[in-house]
């Protein structure tokens, strides 16, 4: 029986086209080259892990002009994502993506129109990258954002004598609209400060049956917001060690009593997950992180439980 439904994007044309985050480029600023065969194998293994958990995977067809379709966590977000309601009672809000990925939206729309969800969009003036920056945690929502930049090369001291500015992805001005959508649940806005963790779901992961536990990377958040996060969640916070954070341990997919993490995270972290009554499952998606800057969760768009299906 299927317990949940997700989006994944066919990796047949996965490549680095725009080079829009620090993982996608070498120190010289050149775009990294993807081992397509390895990426396809890793994608297939992750899909099988999800299916073994009873999850139905909807695949977004590939488009050679849109290699970023492999990261559908950026497609948008679904209201009441954990509620087993009929699709007609939920709304999927489509994202306003970075210009180099804006062409993905029609692809997501086509796939989602077949699910029965209502579809809505935000004001096109405000960039927003979906559940990568807006997601439930316990009985609240977290909204992560940072300084928006025009991505570009600028002079720098050292060698090479330039660096690339990346910035972050979601516009803080959307907070009132998101609060309206999430009501009566509170929305807590957190500022991101490390460009390598350009989305909130690379630094934070709520997991457990009620998303009551939280993996969190201190250095990725503004100091004041880290303190506020600890005040809000207390002992529920598992602070990530730098090594785990750099492996994108927070970019994990939570499904009830299971948590799918990127392969290579520490035994200590796996033990901490188990101590909370959750089974960790590791997936090797290194080609997607090292070349594209996205790990397990980036590769999954959460469409929630399917109403009326046993086990949902």
Q: What can you tell me about this protein's structure?
A:
With 312 residues, this protein is α/β, with parallel strands linked by helices. The chain has one domain: L-arginine/glycine Amidinotransferase, Chain A, CATH 3.75.10. Helix content is 21%, strand content 23%. The longest helix is centred in the first third of the chain and has 17 residues. The protein is globular. The mean pLDDT is 95.
Query: Would you give the CATH topology?
Result: L-arginine/glycine Amidinotransferase, Chain A
Could you report the average pLDDT, rounded to the nearest whole number? 95
CATH architecture: 5-stranded Propeller
Radius of gyration: 18 Å
Q: Total number of helical segments?
A: 7
Give the DSSP E fraction (strand runs of 2 or more residues).
15-25%
What form results from the Cα inertia axes? globular
Query: What's the SSE pattern?
Result: EHEEEHEEEEEHEEEHEHEEHEHE
Low-confidence stretches: none
Q: What gap, in angstroms, lies between the N and C termini? A: 8 Å
Helix content: 10-25%
How many domains make up the coordinates?
Answer: 1
Beta strand count: 17
How many strands, which pairing sense, and closed or not: the largest β-sheet? Answer: 3 strands, mixed
């Amino acid at each position: 029986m299927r317990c949940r439904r997700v989006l994944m994007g066919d990796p047949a044309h996965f490549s680095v086209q725009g080079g829009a985050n620090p993982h996608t480029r070498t120190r010289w600023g050149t775009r990294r080259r993807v081992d397509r065969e390895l990426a396809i194998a890793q994608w297939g293994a992750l899909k099988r892990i999800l299916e073994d958990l009873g999850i139905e995977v909807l695949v977004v067809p590939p488009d050679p002009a849109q290699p970023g379709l492999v990261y559908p966590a950026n497609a948008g977000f679904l209201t009441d994502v954990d509620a087993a309601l009929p699709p007609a009672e939920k709304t999927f809000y489509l994202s306003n993506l970075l210009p180099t990925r804006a062409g993905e939206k029609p692809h997501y729309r086509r796939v989602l129109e077949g699910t029965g969800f209502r579809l809505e969009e935000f004001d096109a003036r405000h960039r927003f990258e979906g559940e990568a920056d807006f997601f439930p945690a316990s009985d609240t929502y977290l909204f992560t954002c940072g300084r928006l930049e025009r991505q570009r090369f600028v002079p720098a001291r050292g060698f090479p004598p330039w660096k690339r500015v990346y910035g972050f992805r979601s516009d803080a001005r959307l907070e009132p609209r998101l609060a309206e959508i999430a009501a009566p649940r509170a929305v807590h806005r957190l500022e991101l400060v490390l460009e390598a963790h350009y989305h909130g779901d690379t630094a934070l992961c709520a997991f457990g049956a009620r998303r009551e536990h939280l993996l969190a990377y201190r250095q990725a958040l503004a100091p004041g917001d880290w303190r506020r996060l600890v005040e809000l969640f207390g002992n529920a916070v598992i602070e990530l060690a730098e090594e785990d954070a750099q492996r994108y341990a927070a970019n994990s997919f939570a499904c009830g009593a299971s948590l799918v993490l990127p392969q290579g995270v520490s035994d200590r972290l796996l033990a901490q997950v188990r101590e909370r009554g959750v089974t960790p499952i590791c997936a090797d998606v290194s080609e997607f992180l090292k070349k594209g800057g996205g790990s397990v969760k980036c590769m999954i768009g959460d469409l929630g439980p399917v109403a009326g299906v046993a086990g949902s």
